[in-house]
Amino acid sequence: MNPTTESKRPNILLITVDQMRFDCLSILGHPVVETPNLDELARTGVRFDHAYSATPTCVPARAAIFTGLKQASHGRVGYQERVPWNYETTLPGELAKSGYHTQCVGKMHVYPARSLLGFHNVVLHDGYLHYSRNKHNVPVQEHYDETDDYLQWLRGQVPGADLLDLGLDCNASTVARPWTLPEHLHPTNWTVSQSIDFLRRRDPSKPFFLWMSFVRPHSPLDPPQTYFDLYKDADFPEPIVGDWAMKEDPGLNGLNPVTSQGIVPKRRMKMAMAAYYALITHIDHQIGRFLQVLSEYGERENTIIMFTSDHGELLGDHHLFRKSLPYEGSAHIPFIVNDLGGHLDLAEGSVVSEVIELRDIMPSLLDAASTEIPGSIEGESIWKLARANKELLENPWREYLHGEHEQGINSNHWVTNGEEKYIWYSQTGEEQFFDLVADPSELHNVIHHPELQERIQYWRSALVHELKGREEGYVQDESLVVGRKPVAVLSHMRPE
């Protein structure tokens, strides 16, 4: 294509946040959190109400975004770091080959950390990753001090600064406190500042693909003081607790500042919720800042915007925290598309109910860029769901989604169509079934309800179909087998 033709293709802005719950949007009627800029993107765009992260932790979720593959194909069915990302076909790579100027700012969470994965350039901030900070067992060239651009920049502004200065843990901490440095030094602001700088130095003869990838609201729970003050005295609703959930915490696990489950002291829980919601509003305002500059460059109406999260955060639901589990707070994610210029002929202000997944991002964005979708891609373009004439779909949308996560004794598999959900814990054999229409908060496990056994058997059979032939041996004689050893990375992706 010549430069004139290239410049008419729409820019693509992919905005991802880390660990944001699906329900933390004020347009959904959340009783506390405020997200005015995301609300506007939804109001003038399309909201996908049943978007999920099939393997809801950072590494496998990003593998789905990069490759457009199911977890069994991209090979990451749990969380394991330091496994090389040897994918020949990637979202930024395909866009770069088709004439886009490609840039990532913020979190990649790939290995090696400085892999470009098809981008022309990466300005990297992965947050605090344990493997890259453990001085006793990581090569110098892989250490955080060598790989992270934000830390280098921060130390140029504040000599000696480090990510541990606030004394907060980087992963699922329930301990919160405000950011102590000036707000413009916060990694959320830095991500937007670097993204704005990309607008200045991009190749103007090409359309651009910018992945603006925030580390927050993932812990540390460190919002700037102004945002923390918005929420610290708010009247928060209690976390939802199902009748199947733990009722007591005899081991006092909730006192652990980096707990994955337990009954957390009420004051600390309130502070954690205040900081979590504050981080979301902080991100929302910074997204508004970027959109304003995008308009100043005259590119707002020529830019297709997609917003989502890599996974959710249980935030005390059922006395659980973090992600990786199959419940709505963990696996259900926000997903908004905005096309102010009308490139895709979407039904403005509509809400899509079909189940979509992170693997659908790659084919959707390639489709939006008029770029050929490789035949190996297993996701599907979502635009046909969001058009006014979607009843004219040539083929039915997917019947259900299969999700999973290796997590030791809590290793799990689940299938859902957004209205029902069946869960199987592979190491214990425990089963759960939720009617998400009547019980969206998953308060009642109705696996033994006599009138639902036919539906439950349907979903059990669907999971058998998904797991048949897997190397772990989860299926034998058309039945699920309990106790097979789970793995985080399937053999075709493990280094020899």
TrEMBL record:
Give the residues annotated as coiled coil: none
Q: What is its EC number?
A: 3.1.6.1
InterPro entries according to UniProt: Alkaline_phosphatase_core_sf, Sulfatase_CS, Sulfatase_N
Origin: domain of life: Bacteria
- Which GO MF terms does the UniProt record name? arylsulfatase activity; metal ion binding
Pfam families from the xrefs? Sulfatase
An example Gene Ontology CC term for this record: cytoplasm
UniProt domain Sulfatase N-terminal: residue ranges: 10-369
Keywords of the record, alphabetical order, are: Hydrolase, Metal-binding
Family assignment from sequence similarity: Belongs to the sulfatase family.
State the protein's name: Arylsulfatase
